[in-house]
Design goal:
Blueprint (H helix, E strand, L loop, with lengths): L9 H7 L26 H5 L15 H14 L3 E5 L2 H10 L7 E5 L4 H13 L3 E5 L4 H8 L4 E7 L11 H10 L3 E5 L4 H4 L9 E5 L13 E5 L2 H13 L6 H12 L1 H19 L5 E5 L9 H7 L6 E6 L5 H9 L16 E5 L16 E5 L5 H20 L1
Parallel strand pairs: 2-3, 2-4, 4-5, 5-6
Antiparallel strand pairs: 1-7, 6-7, 8-9, 9-11, 10-11
Helix pairs in contact: 1-3, 3-10, 4-5, 4-9, 6-7, 13-14
């Protein structure tokens, strides 16, 4: 049966939102609608279709897509959400609707690499200027960078690879006062551990490929919008560029969403245990995990976030060269080398902030490894890491 009540406790919201068994023959999960053509029963209804409502063509949405969008909007507290074909499509689809030639955008210096590439290439070609800022400057520092033509302030807390946590409240207040739209990549924390709309954001962006899908088997992006106005701008942009999410991927994302709360608690617990274990290793210089007191922006994390996930980084002590890092990574048994994260499997990759950071350059030669702690037993993960450090030490001392 379809729930007749509105629930607010996260685990229940994840379980019941976006379901309609009463209209699907009692079937618990929304079915997968494969559709391009959608028929109208009369000419009047065909010619008077309401924008953004109902179903008129497969590219603009199906009941499967709407079920996912409704469920994400419910857990995030959004007016509406928009499902698109990838996390990057969510980034670009959200941004592009709010900018035109001559506009200016402010972007945190620790933003997702492809988001920076979009700003530096496509938006630049369209005549939009982007300024990158130190993620730790706070609202007062951001105010000094605002211009009359600043239309978007783009945040990512914590930031990709280096995990600084911005003062979202302070920055959002400054941006909103100046009339700029505030967007945030909320993939790391998910709607369970951070509520962007409670902190002044207008748009929340997710690589649903990560924790929402949770099983490394589907590409997915989600744009959640605080208001009807924001939704119509973002949805129009996505429709204009032909962005949409495939029905089977929507089904997989909705399936993953049901268990996200359970999985995320495991990722958080194991991630913290591994992070603290890494702090004891002589090979490690610093662990960049927002829940640790010495991580940049930790106080912001404590004030604004309800928890942490399984993704963080650590730096190696000075003097360790690339061949030693390769000896460690090439021989890992459980930890795989893959660019994604958020699935059930643990991953570890070399990261290179020195190749893109501009507002706050990364120290030359500082080796950074990004890890995602999956659902494996934490003791087995420690063993795999310890054996990796042995290989690193042998190569370094050879």
């Amino acid at each position: 049966m379809t729930s007749k009540k509105t629930y607010t406790r996260p685990d229940t919201v994840l379980a019941v939102s976006g379901r309609d068994p009463d209209n699907n023959f009692g079937i618990v999960n929304p079915p997968v609608y494969h559709a391009s053509t959608i028929l109208s029963p009369t000419m009047d209804k065909f010619e008077n279709r309401i924008p953004f409502e109902g179903y008129g063509y497969g590219r603009n949405g199906t009941p499967t897509q709407k079920a996912l969008e409704d469920a994400v909007a419910a857990i995030e507290g959004a007016h509406r959400s928009i499902a698109v074909q990838s996390g990057l499509a969510a980034v670009t689809g959200a941004i592009v609707g709010f900018l035109k030639t001559g506009d200016h955008m402010l972007v945190t210096d620790n933003a997702y690499g492809p988001a920076r590439r979009f700003a530096n290439t496509t938006l630049k070609g369209f005549g939009v200027e982007t300024t990158y800022f130190d993620p730790m400057i706070g609202g007062e520092g951001l105010a000094k960078l605002m211009r009359p033509n600043t239309k978007v302030v783009y945040l990512e807390a914590p930031g990709s690879q280096t995990f600084e946590v911005q003062d979202v409240d302070g920055m959002a207040a400054v941006a909103k006062k100046a009339g700029a739209a505030v967007m945030i990549d909320n993939t790391w924390a998910t709607p369970l551990y951070f509520k962007p709309f409670d902190h002044g954001c207008d748009i929340s962006i997710h690589a649903g490929t990560k924790y929402i899908v949770g099983h490394s088997d589907a590409m997915m992006g989600i744009i959640s919008c605080a208001t009807r106005e924001m939704f119509e701008i973002a949805k129009t942009a996505c429709q204009s560029f032909g962005f949409h999410a495939a029905p089977d991927d929507c089904y997989l994302a909705l399936r993953g969403l049901r268990t996200m709360g359970v999985r995320l608690r495991h990722h958080e617990k194991s991630g913290l245990e591994i992070a603290n274990w890494l702090k004891t290793r002589p090979e490690v210089d610093k662990v960049l995990h927002p829940a640790l007191p010495d991580c940049p922006g930790h106080e912001n994390w404590k004030k604004q976030f309800k928890g942490s996930s399984g993704l963080f980084s650590f730096t190696l002590r000075d003097g360790i060269k690339r061949p030693a890092v390769a000896a460690m990574l090439d021989g890992m048994d459980i930890f795989g080398m893959g660019a994604s994260w958020g699935g059930y499997e643990s991953l570890m990759i070399p990261a290179h902030p020195d190749q893109y950071r501009t507002a706050v350059p990364w120290p030359e030669g500082k080796q950074l490894l990004r890890v995602h702690i999956g659902l494996e037993d934490v003791e087995d993960l420690k063993t795999d890491l310890a054996e990796g450090f042995e290989r690193l030490n042998r190569a370094h001392n050879a």
